[in-house]
Amino acid sequence: TEWMREPALGIDWTQLVALSHHLEVLHPFPAAATVRSQVAVTEVLDRGPSRGAVIHWERELTDRESGVRLAVLKAQALARNNGGFGGLAFYFFALNGSLPRISSVP
Questions:
Q1: CA–CA separation, 54 vs 15, rounded Å?
Q2: Which pLDDT tens digit goes with each residue over 46-99?
Q3: Helix (H) or strand (E) holding 70
Q4: Pairwise CA distance, residues 4 & 54, whole Å
Q5: What DSSP character marks residue 49?
Q6: Rounded-to-integer distance, Cα 52 and Cα 29, Å
């Protein structure tokens, strides 16, 4: 969740609480490979002022050379200090001009 510390996103990362994580392994991981990691925020639910927001996101891992999807991590976090942004039930964050994906490559 290092991407949540990006100042442009406006998330108070000191007030984040992990709610859930679900890992789906799609293919066996190779013994040696370069793996690409790509994060997408899929939904942000506003719980109201002083109640926070729930951030739903996914991280997809792919074999960089073959493009094979190896695994998908689906997660939720409670941003306790970020509620009350107007009641939008579906919202994507943009970073580095990329919408809706936020890429990170090790």
A1: 12
A2: 887 888 888 899 999 999 999 999 999 999 999 998 888 765 543 444 333 433
A3: strand 69-79
A4: 13
A5: T
A6: 37
- Three-state secondary-structure class, residue 22: strand
Whole-angstrom distance, CA of residue 6 vs CA of residue 77 = 15
Beta-bridged to residue 6, according to DSSP, are: none
pLDDT of residue 77: 92
CA–CA gap between residue 3 and residue 64 (Å, rounded): 20
Considering the entire predicted model, what is its pTM? 0.74
Please tell me the distance from the alpha carbon of residue 71 to that of residue 2, in angstroms, as a whole number. Answer: 19
> Residue 16's beta-bridge partner residues?
79
pLDDT at residue number 86: 66
Both structure tokens of 53: 């927001």
pLDDT tens, 12-33?
889 999 999 999 999 999 899 9
Least Cα distance to 6 among 74, 96, 73, 99 occurs for 96
Q: Could you tell me the two tokens for 30? A: 């190779």
